[in-house]
Amino acid sequence: MYNIFETDEDLETTGIWIDYGDFRVKIAAAGQGNKNYVKYAEKALKPVRKVMSAGALSNERSLGIMADIYAKTIVLDWETVVDEEAKKGIESRDGSIVPFNYENVRKVFHDLPNLFIDIQEQASSIANFRKAELEEEAGN
Hints:
Elements: H1 2-5, H2 9-14, E1 16-19, E2 23-27, H3 35-45, H4 49-53, H5 59-73, E3 75-82, E4 85-88, E5 90-91, E6 97-98, H6 102-111, H7 113-124, H8 126-129, H9 131-139
Antiparallel strand pairs: 1-2, 2-3, 3-4, 5-6
Helix pairs in contact: 3-5, 5-6, 6-7
């Protein structure tokens, strides 16, 4: 049971890199071990709790709130490969590299909802932050 559910508490907040080939994103865990996430999510969701409970929160508004939460508390860094070298920043639609910051992460999440969904899944995956799996990888 512990091997399945125990996570590395440091990694939950310091993050892991998710490699997408031409770019990579460093993410923290979207769970109870990430106190910044829990605290900010509680604050951001408080005004819409009743609407959520009634099932009346629009998908667009829900995605906007979650994109805000993830851009502030989950996405810790972003690198893009340029001329075979990783550089801090995010590739924009026109191919230029824009700074890694809250606004640009939100824009990418808005423009590429499938990427945002994948990052949500990765940040919620216990396996990515599981202590037993990380120890096993270190031994190989």
